[in-house]
Amino acid sequence: MSSLPVRKLTPEEYLEIERQAEFKSEFYRGEMFAMSGAGRAHNLIANNIGGEARSRLRGRPCEVYGSDMRVRVSTTGPYTYPDATIACDKPQFVDDRGDTLLTPKVLFEVLSETTEKYDRGAKSNQYRQIESLQEYVLVSQSEPHVEVFQRCLDGKWLFSEARELSASITIESLGVTLPLSEIYLRVEFPDSVAAAV
Q1: How is 20-71 classified by DSSP, letter by letter?
Q2: Fewer CB under 10 Å: which end of the chain, C or N?
Q3: pLDDT (tens digit, 9 = 90+) per residue, 147-179?
Q4: Is the pLDDT of residue 195 over 50?
């Protein structure tokens, strides 16, 4: 017995469905993938990043978005929901709905056990294809550890990281420094991690 081929959605069909859905789904290669909810640490970290970035960018032509801003990587997808996104100058969107960003400058993903492999691998590779993207930041929620991937003038990517609450990361494309103590404000680490910090 043969199974019927699964019909792939077009990006336009995805957006039509997604805009009416009660929960968020990412889109890749014609398929929708439901997103699960996030826990306390994840939410604290994402909100801390957004708040700190917004505060440091006040008065500048940049906008900071939370995890409800959809980002289109290319015309065929994927469409994702980064944990925090920064766009500057005149952000461009798929259409006048303003809910699908085309021109992120900096993307943040808070890592979890279920998403870390994808965030480091396939998603990272896809994000780096976005022409406007200057920095991609991965933030651990299990320990103080932030990794920054910065696009250089020659198109290569430079890696830097910070591993202590007393350290800071610099988002070079924005000229903004974010202390890990603020990124992880109120986040509780397991006793074994807390003892090492």
Answers
A1: T-SS-EEEETTEEEEPPP--HHHHHHHHHHHHHHHHHTTTSSEEEE-TT-EE
A2: N
A3: 999 999 898 999 999 999 999 999 999 999 999
A4: no
The number of residues making up the chain comes to 197
For residue range 17-41, what is the model confidence (pLDDT) as tens digits?
A: 999 999 999 999 899 998 887 889 9
Q: What is the CATH number of the domain that holds 43?
A: 3.90.1570.10
Cα–Cα distance between 67 and 109 in angstroms, integer? 9
Q: Is residue 80 within a helix (H) or strand (E), and if so which, with residue range?
A: strand 79-80
In a domain, 172, yes or no: yes
CA angle 29, 33, 34 (to 5 degrees): 160
Would the pTM count as exceeding 0.85? yes
